[in-house]
């Protein structure tokens, strides 16, 4: 009997959703950063074995939006809860349930699919805090399963996977067995460059940046020639991104090239241009051009 289904991962920003999905997939398919709100789209990845196929939907963190980009991110996450076979509610141990988690749990009360509580980062907390969080959250919502894990270290992730498979219905293989993601190479390229910028830049810049892949060509010897616009909102941010004598932009380019060569399995030449587009996160036309299609 072959089992298959769609599993969405929801939670506040920076609770480890992308880290969990990347661990399950064994591939770095979703941007991972220690800064919140790094995932901006619902990224679909496919885990296939001889016994099952799980289609994961990694979502942006649900938060109170401050601009049209934020609205897009929250709406994308909410949309992902519809028509799935299982919802993983991911959160971290805390002294009490925060407003963000309560907001998500309230949204999940309308879910037709079973909901698993996945308490992540338990290795970074005390046993007492973990136990209290599990009890408080259990009293707040009727979860089908409760699993404490460490996505970063892989603790209990195999158990989580086994429980997910048990919950899946009998079904077809929705995607070819060798397909691991439904996103295009250009999207992954833009996400890799954005992740490197997030890691290299100061806190005041990252959420105001976007990456637009202008050109991606492969020469006869297999080398990719990539040009991207790194878009920011302020002239002062442009200076920070470029850095003294261009050192910051050079560091972003070098770390991105290394990651891109691992992803594309060939040599990469990359050029990054920094462009200022004031208040682009509230510009509907520009947001759509950058791939945020559901912005209204």
Automatic annotation (TrEMBL):
<feature type="domain" description="Era-type G">
    <location>
        <begin position="3"/>
        <end position="170"/>
    </location>
</feature>
<dbReference type="GO" id="GO:0005829">
    <property type="term" value="C:cytosol"/>
</dbReference>
<dbReference type="GO" id="GO:0000028">
    <property type="term" value="P:ribosomal small subunit assembly"/>
</dbReference>
<dbReference type="InterPro" id="IPR006073">
    <property type="entry name" value="GTP-bd"/>
</dbReference>
<dbReference type="GO" id="GO:0070181">
    <property type="term" value="F:small ribosomal subunit rRNA binding"/>
</dbReference>
<feature type="binding site">
    <location>
        <begin position="58"/>
        <end position="62"/>
    </location>
    <ligand>
        <name>GTP</name>
    </ligand>
</feature>
<feature type="domain" description="KH type-2">
    <location>
        <begin position="201"/>
        <end position="278"/>
    </location>
</feature>
<feature type="region of interest" description="G1">
    <location>
        <begin position="11"/>
        <end position="18"/>
    </location>
</feature>
<dbReference type="InterPro" id="IPR004044">
    <property type="entry name" value="KH_dom_type_2"/>
</dbReference>
<keyword id="KW-0699">rRNA-binding</keyword>
<keyword id="KW-0694">RNA-binding</keyword>
<keyword id="KW-1003">Cell membrane</keyword>
<dbReference type="Pfam" id="PF07650">
    <property type="entry name" value="KH_2"/>
</dbReference>
<keyword id="KW-0472">Membrane</keyword>
<dbReference type="InterPro" id="IPR030388">
    <property type="entry name" value="G_ERA_dom"/>
</dbReference>
<dbReference type="InterPro" id="IPR005662">
    <property type="entry name" value="GTPase_Era-like"/>
</dbReference>
<dbReference type="GO" id="GO:0005886">
    <property type="term" value="C:plasma membrane"/>
</dbReference>
<dbReference type="GO" id="GO:0005525">
    <property type="term" value="F:GTP binding"/>
</dbReference>
<feature type="binding site">
    <location>
        <begin position="11"/>
        <end position="18"/>
    </location>
    <ligand>
        <name>GTP</name>
    </ligand>
</feature>
<feature type="binding site">
    <location>
        <begin position="120"/>
        <end position="123"/>
    </location>
    <ligand>
        <name>GTP</name>
    </ligand>
</feature>
<dbReference type="GO" id="GO:0043024">
    <property type="term" value="F:ribosomal small subunit binding"/>
</dbReference>
<dbReference type="Pfam" id="PF01926">
    <property type="entry name" value="MMR_HSR1"/>
</dbReference>
<feature type="region of interest" description="G3">
    <location>
        <begin position="58"/>
        <end position="61"/>
    </location>
</feature>
<keyword id="KW-0547">Nucleotide-binding</keyword>
<keyword id="KW-0690">Ribosome biogenesis</keyword>
<dbReference type="GO" id="GO:0003924">
    <property type="term" value="F:GTPase activity"/>
</dbReference>
<dbReference type="InterPro" id="IPR009019">
    <property type="entry name" value="KH_sf_prok-type"/>
</dbReference>
<comment type="similarity">
    <text>Belongs to the TRAFAC class TrmE-Era-EngA-EngB-Septin-like GTPase superfamily. Era GTPase family.</text>
</comment>
<protein>
    <recommendedName>
        <fullName>GTPase Era</fullName>
    </recommendedName>
</protein>
<dbReference type="InterPro" id="IPR027417">
    <property type="entry name" value="P-loop_NTPase"/>
</dbReference>
<comment type="subunit">
    <text>Monomer.</text>
</comment>
<dbReference type="InterPro" id="IPR005225">
    <property type="entry name" value="Small_GTP-bd"/>
</dbReference>
<feature type="region of interest" description="G4">
    <location>
        <begin position="120"/>
        <end position="123"/>
    </location>
</feature>
<keyword id="KW-0963">Cytoplasm</keyword>
<comment type="function">
    <text>An essential GTPase that binds both GDP and GTP, with rapid nucleotide exchange. Plays a role in 16S rRNA processing and 30S ribosomal subunit biogenesis and possibly also in cell cycle regulation and energy metabolism.</text>
</comment>
<dbReference type="InterPro" id="IPR015946">
    <property type="entry name" value="KH_dom-like_a/b"/>
</dbReference>
<feature type="region of interest" description="G2">
    <location>
        <begin position="37"/>
        <end position="41"/>
    </location>
</feature>
<keyword id="KW-0342">GTP-binding</keyword>
<feature type="region of interest" description="G5">
    <location>
        <begin position="149"/>
        <end position="151"/>
    </location>
</feature>
């Amino acid at each position: 009997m072959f089992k298959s289904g769609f599993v969405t991962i929801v939670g506040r920003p920076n609770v480890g959703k992308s880290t969990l999905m990347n661990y399950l997939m064994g591939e770095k398919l979703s941007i991972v950063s220690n800064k919140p709100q790094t995932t901006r789209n619902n990224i679909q990845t496919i885990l296939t074995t001889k016994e099952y196929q799980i289609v994961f939907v990694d979502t942006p963190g649900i938060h109170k939006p401050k601009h049209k980009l934020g609205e897009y991110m929250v709406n994308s996450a909410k949309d992902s809860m519809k028509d799935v076979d299982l919802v993983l509610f991911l959160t971290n141990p805390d002294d009490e349930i925060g407003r963000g988690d309560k907001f998500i749990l309230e949204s999940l009360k309308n879910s037709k699919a079973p909901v698993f509580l996945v308490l992540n980062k338990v290795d970074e907390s005390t046993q007492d805090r973990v136990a209290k969080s599990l009890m408080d959250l259990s009293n707040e919502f009727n979860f089908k399963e409760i699993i404490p894990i460490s996505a970063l270290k892989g603790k209990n992730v195999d158990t989580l996977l086994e429980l997910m498979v048990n919950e899946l219905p009998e079904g077809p293989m929705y995607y070819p067995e060798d397909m691991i993601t439904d996103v295009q190479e250009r999207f992954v390229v833009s996400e890799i460059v954005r992740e490197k910028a997030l890691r290299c830049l100061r806190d005041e810049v990252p959420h105001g940046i976007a990456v637009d892949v202008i050109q991606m060509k492969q020469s006869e010897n297999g080398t990719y020639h990539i040009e991207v616009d790194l878009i920011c909102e302020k002239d002062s941010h442009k200076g920070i991104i470029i850095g003294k004598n261009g050192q910051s932009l050079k560091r972003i380019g070098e770390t991105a090239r290394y990651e891109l060569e691992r992803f594309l399995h060939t040599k990469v030449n990359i050029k990054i241009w920094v462009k200022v587009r004031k208040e682009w996160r509230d510009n509907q036309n520009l947001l759509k051009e950058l791939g945020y299609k559901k912005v209204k």
